[in-house]
Amino acid sequence: MTKEIQEQISYYDARAKEYDEWFYRIGRYDRGWELNQRWFDEVAVLKNALQQVGKVESILELACGTGIWTQELLKLGDQVTAIDASAEMIAINKEKLKSINKVDYHQFDLFSWRPNTQYDLVFFSFWLSHVPPTQVDEFLLKVYRAVRPGGKVFIIDSRFDSTSTAKDHRFENENEIYQQRKLNDGQKYKIFKIYYRPDNLLQKLTQAGFQANVKQTNNYFIYAEGQKR
Ligand SMILES: C[S@@+](CC[C@H](N)C(=O)[O-])C[C@H]1O[C@@H](n2cnc3c(N)ncnc32)[C@H](O)[C@@H]1O
Question: Whose C-alpha lies nearest to ligand 1, atom 26?
């Protein structure tokens, strides 16, 4: 594993306990009522689009994090297999969903992961933007192998918008592939953060073999659905 991939895992391990502050717009991520509401309205668009996938039997969630989207996936199917490299993230996810008891957790580095099962739906949110550009095509081919024929991939990620991150993050330009992130205690980490545009993401998903459709919300998010023929 490269030092950069390791640093990214260490960052998420260290951030796990404060991770949800980003999604729920708390503390350094609180941008005031209007922008917070804009964020939540766009989250509602994503949740609705995901539910349109309809009921499925088997779901694989990659880089599951604290379970913000795992709980949405459990509305689509009775069983989710969830992978993440961070033990801290998995522990929070487990704790949140322990009463449901329908998630099978695996702690893996996704760059060493070799899919050996096929699923009706493979889902990942805010993960593709952390895959180094040199590895993204190979990663998407692995995703393709993990989807059963006729099955789907659903992806959610960030659009470039300076108000999506913490107030004390310096926002690099849209084409920069690294960002410096800070934790609440001031610790700093360097991570990959790549912003996909719809045409670019569509091209990558098509090249991997999917018949795909890519959309954006007004400000904050890009999302895609792809089907394996
Ligand atoms: C931005 S978070 C997204 C979490 C979750 N999908 C969500 O939407 O809230 C990125 C996740 O990727 C995980 N991660 C980072 N590097 C990884 C790796 N090499 N293999 C697997 N997971 C990794 C982190 O632990 C973290 O949970």
Answer: 65
Tally of domains within the chain: 1
Pocket test for ligand 1, best of 7, 89, 96, 156 (most atoms within 8 A of CB): 89
Nearest CA owner, ligand 1 atom 27 = 65
Which atom from ligand 1 is nearest to the alpha carbon of 129?
1
Q: What is the CATH number of the domain that holds 33?
A: 3.40.50.150
Mind listing the pLDDT tens digit for each residue in 165-187? 888 777 767 888 998 989 999 99
Q: What is the pLDDT of residues 34-85, one digit of tens each?
A: 999 999 999 999 999 999 999 999 999 999 999 999 999 999 998 999 999 9
Domain holding 59, by residue range, is 3-228
Question: What one-character-per-residue DSSP string does the chain give?
Answer: --HHHHHHHHHHHHHGGGTHHHHTT-GGG---HHHHHHHHHHHHHHHHHHHTT---S-EEEES-TTSTTHHHHTTT-S-EEEEES-HHHHHHHHHHTTTT--EEEEE--TTT----S-EEEEEEES-GGGS-GGGHHHHHHHHHHHEEEEEEEEEEEE---GGGS-TTPPP--TT--EEEEE-TT--EEEEE--PPPHHHHHHHHHHHTEEEEEEE-SSSEEEEEEEE-
pLDDT of 137 over the 90 cut = yes
Tell me the CA–centroid distance for residue 216 and ligand 1, in Å. Answer: 21
- If you take atom 18 of ligand 1, which residue's CA is the nearest one? 109
CA of residue 135 to ligand 1 center, whole Å: 16
pLDDT, one tens digit per residue, over 182-200 is: 999 999 999 999 999 999 9
State in Å: Cα 34 to ligand 1 middle: 28
